[in-house]
Backbone:
């Protein structure tokens, strides 16, 4: 009986509950997605081309946001390459970078 309960709990508890969100944005879990996106930007994150992946150049941190029913369900740190960052060498920012192309160069700013 105890084994059955333990197996059920292991299957039913989502893995996202065990993932720790980066401390600077952990409070956004549970927030409405539209408002949370603005807050992510205010905290230095740039949406890197959709798919709910965000890059913070100051922290050199890439995060993946999972949205469920219009709210941020989880935020998890992921590898820098998921945000278009190369493992070695500094990214070169084009001199004529526009706001529309900023997502292509997540480490750059205007």
Residues:
């Amino acid at each position: 009986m105890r084994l059955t309960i333990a197996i059920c709990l292991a299957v039913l508890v989502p893995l996202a509950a065990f993932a720790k969100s980066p401390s600077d944005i952990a409070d956004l879990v549970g927030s409405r997605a539209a408002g949370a996106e603005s807050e992510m930007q205010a905290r230095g994150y740039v949406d890197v081309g959709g798919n709910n992946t965000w890059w913070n150049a100051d922290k050199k941190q890439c995060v993946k946001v999972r949205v469920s029913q219009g709210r941020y369900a989880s935020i998890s740190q992921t590898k820098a390459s998921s945000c278009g960052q190369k493992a070695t060498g500094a990214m070169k920012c084009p001199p004529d970078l526009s706001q529309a192309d900023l997502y292509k160069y997540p480490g750059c700013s205007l």
